[in-house]
């Protein structure tokens, strides 16, 4: 079977989803710069509905606020590409779903839009697990191209979702 995604990434997602299903856990995604690619990868796996509860694509700041409850004040103060917003997105996705684990991503995929403080390739992730402290991760992928930054972000999100199984 062919996949839209690299075969190793697809296989990692397939195995991870089987582990989530076996444990009766469900996933929700909250995506900005990946535009739904994380949910796209997960739902490419047949039977993924046993582990994928829902996904949010909140590309604009208004969507982050309206759909996930990210405070407008936070978005104005630190900007959408920040650890705080990644945390709030993951927590908001978890609170607005019936899932057990939420992963969020917000960043600058390029090729434009970066600055000295927030360069292209800067991506923040959040991982919220019910009844546990939310974790975040910062990655600096550089500027290898928009597609590469987005796929690297999907890989990192899958790694984070896998790490939730270790807890």
Automatic annotation (TrEMBL):
Question: Which species does the entry assign this protein to?
Answer: Hyphomicrobium sulfonivorans
Name the Pfam families for this protein: CinA
**What InterPro entries does the record point to?**
CinA-like_C, CinA_C
Q: Looking at the record's lineage, which domain of life comes first?
A: Bacteria
Indicate what this protein is called per its UniProt record: C-terminal domain of CinA type S
In this chain the CinA C-terminal domain maps to: 13-164
